[in-house]
Amino acid sequence: MISQKQKEKARVFSDMHKKNKLFVLPNTWDVGSAYVFEKQGFKAVATSSAGIAYDLGYPDGEDISFGDLLWIVEKIVSRVDIPLSVDFERGYGDTGGEVKENARKLLFAGAVGLNIEDGLPNKKLNPLDKQIEKIKALSELKRELDIDFVINARTCAYWLNVGNDEEKLKIAYERGNAFVEAGADCVFIPGAIDKATVSKLVKGIHAPINIILNGVFNDFEGLEKLGVRRLSVGSGPVRYVYRETIDLANNLYNGNVAELLNNGFTYAKANNYFNKVS
Fold this sequence. Notes:
Layout: H1 4-18, E1 23-25, E2 27-28, H2 31-39, E3 45-47, H3 49-55, H4 66-79, E4 84-87, H5 96-108, E5 113-117, H6 128-145, E6 150-154, H7 165-182, E7 186-188, H8 195-204, E8 209-212, H9 220-226, E9 230-232, H10 236-253, H11 258-261, H12 267-273
Parallel strand pairs: 1-9, 2-3, 3-4, 4-5, 5-6, 6-7, 7-8, 8-9
Helix pairs in contact: 2-4, 5-6, 6-7, 7-8
């Protein structure tokens, strides 16, 4: 059930979006990475759908089961104290009712934020009325459970490169504002978006804006000045870690073990780091 402690976490996470300040939301893929982000000072953490999929040995895109996601969420919440937002992609359902029931389970597991997207496997966008149905269902769940969890509504207009620059901007405006009217608290527009476009999105969408860390425009101070409130890092951290793991595997296979043996993060240091003090 929903505890007062969880409601307070939800309030804290919601307030982070309302302050006139950018916050970086690291995306985790397992309990250990969530623990690390918390220990290094982050005030909230979010799951990465790609990260969890890779960690379970699958590609991104709802290839893992909802049960797998739910299990990971339960484990993360049991180990970290900061708010957790969950990326549950398209909601593991086609209708508002299906998405609502899945969301209910994630909230009962301890989540205080939900990220839902409109991108489809065929690289098109879910019809707007269908996506609004999902967001309205999540908004209804807020009232039913009396918890102010954050609905982060994602449009994949830029991520999937739907149309030319003018068309993508128009789609982002239309969908972003429709999502807000349906009950979304924040609008997520991932993609390699330049400074001028970020500025237009912030001005044209009437809600806190979330973008993803990218190589085109990633200056934290500049993003904050433009009015971006939430900066996600997506699958960047888990891809970095797995790239290193692949290199490690190749070196080990070829008998190159010097770097592995000279790792300064000793067994004793690792145990001490993960020894959480109550």
